[in-house]
Amino acid sequence: MKGLFALIAMMIALPVAAQQSVPPAPYAYRQLEDPVLEAEAQELMETLRCLKCQSQSIADSDAAMAGDMRHQVRIRIASGESPEEVRSWLVERYGDYVSYEPVLSTRTWPLFAVPVILVLVAGMLFWRRFRRRG
Amino acid sequence: MSWRLWVPLLLFSGFLGLAAYQLTQPKDDVVESRMVGRELPYFTLPPASLDRPGVDSRDFYDGKPKLLNIWASWCLPCIAEAPQLEALKEQGVEIVGVAIRDEPVDVMRFLTQHGNPYTRIGRDDLSEVQLGIGSSGVPETFVIDGKGVIRYQHIGDIREEHVPILLEELRKAES
Fold it and tell me: I need a labelling partner for B64 at 20 to 30 A (CA). Which of A61, A100, B57, B138 fits?
């Protein structure tokens, strides 16, 4: 009986006491009225890193700070900034790390170059092999 | 057998070794602000407590270096750094607080319990100032020189050993 009670108790989810009493930012969970702008904001938020929970995007995270970042993204998009302008505003503050979108720079070019080189080398090897046979 | 046959295996084991080494390295999850060396963005925050004024970015242009402490009453490491902030205040350092997503009643309770080293405390309910200066968590402490330029960022709670470092950075910010 006790076990059954415990089992039932475990199945009922109780809200954990709120850590912060301040309500979330206005546009943390509210979409923009204009569906086109909201789609732009949504697409951008999926490629921005939550700084508190670093393997999630701000679109996926329920952290308060991610909510504040979504608010920033939405009000900036609503005020006419382009998604790339908002992204560079954040990159200016936190570096490339805040963005999931890969960028080509002096540090990252090998990531793009190495696969191309490997394909070329493989192609060359195949070509030599088949030429010898033929 | 040609030595060249061994090249792919060597390359592969080299790669494996590199991956294994990287796996044993501790994860670096500190995000440094790129705003160090740059001017504070313009902002005005209402007061977060009943006995201290709010914060305006123009407060940082009076020629005297200050600490800008990003904190919150709901943040546990902020309790741990309270004695160090007190020690800095006793050394004559002016500390300006920005309370993140905090109600005045909680701020007041925190300050009564852990001391109030701040000359001003601004209320940042939307983390606007925090995002504006490239801070990614609480607590974080910035050294701002007398011309509103961010000179140094300390990430995490201030421990005893960080007090001399901050004093040194404040001294450097005087020039």
Answer: B138
